[in-house]
C-alpha cells in the first residue's frame, strides 16, 4: 500500500498535461522516472538541461528500455564522450535531440542506432551536425536510413548544411522524408 502511494505522488509530480508528458530537469527527476518503470508506457519524456554522464546514462537506458515510451525529447543537454553509446539507446522511439551541439559524429551515432525494423521520427535540428569529422558519413547514413524506410520524418534544419551538402540525397528522398534545411 505504501508503495502505491509513492507511485501516485511521483505520477502527480511529473504529469504536466493530458498527453502524459513528463519532464526531467535534474538527476533526481531522472531517478524518479526510472523508478516508475512500466507506468511510463506510452509517455513522452523530455530531458532538459542535463549532462549525460556514465552513471546518469544507466537510469536513462532503463527508462527508455523498460518504459516503452512514445517519444523522447532531449533539449539543451550535454553528452559526455563516454556516453555517446547512449545516443543509440533511443533507436525504437520517436526522438528529438535539439540545441545539444551534436556534431556530425554524434549525429551518426544516433542514425546508426536506429532499428531497421522500426519506423520512427527523428528531429536533430539546431545542433552542429555540419561540423566535426564524420559529416560525409553522417549524410551517407541519412541516405541509407531513407532507403531502408526506417525514418518517417527527419528534421536536420538549423545545422548550416548547404544545398550541395544535401544534393546527394536527391529531391525525392528529401520530400519523402521531410528533411528541412
Strand content range: 15-25%
- Arrangement of strands in the largest sheet: 1-2-4-6-7-8
Helix content: 25-40%
Biggest sheet record = 6 strands, parallel
Oligomer: single chain
Q: Write the element-wise H/E pattern from the N-terminal end onward.
A: HEHEEHEEEHEHEHH
Describe the structure.
By secondary structure, the protein is α/β, with parallel strands linked by helices. The chain is 39% helix and 18% strand. The chain is built from 7 helices and 8 strands. The chain has helices at residues 2-14, 27-36, 54-67, 104-113, 135-147, 163-166, 171-177, and strands at residues 21-24, 44-48, 51-52, 71-75, 78-79, 94-98, 120-123, 151-155. The strands form 2 sheets. Strands 1-2-4-6-7-8 form a 6-stranded parallel β-sheet. Strands 3-5 form a two-stranded parallel ribbon. Helix 1 crosses helix 2 (27-36), helix 2 (27-36) packs parallel to helix 3 and helix 4 (104-113) runs parallel beside helix 5 (135-147). The longest helix is centred in the middle third of the chain and has 14 residues, at 54-67. The protein is globular.
List the helices and strands and how they pair.
Blueprint: H1 2-14, E1 21-24, H2 27-36, E2 44-48, E3 51-52, H3 54-67, E4 71-75, E5 78-79, E6 94-98, H4 104-113, E7 120-123, H5 135-147, E8 151-155, H6 163-166, H7 171-177
Parallel strand pairs: 1-2, 2-4, 3-5, 4-6, 6-7, 7-8
Helix pairs in contact: 1-2, 2-3, 4-5
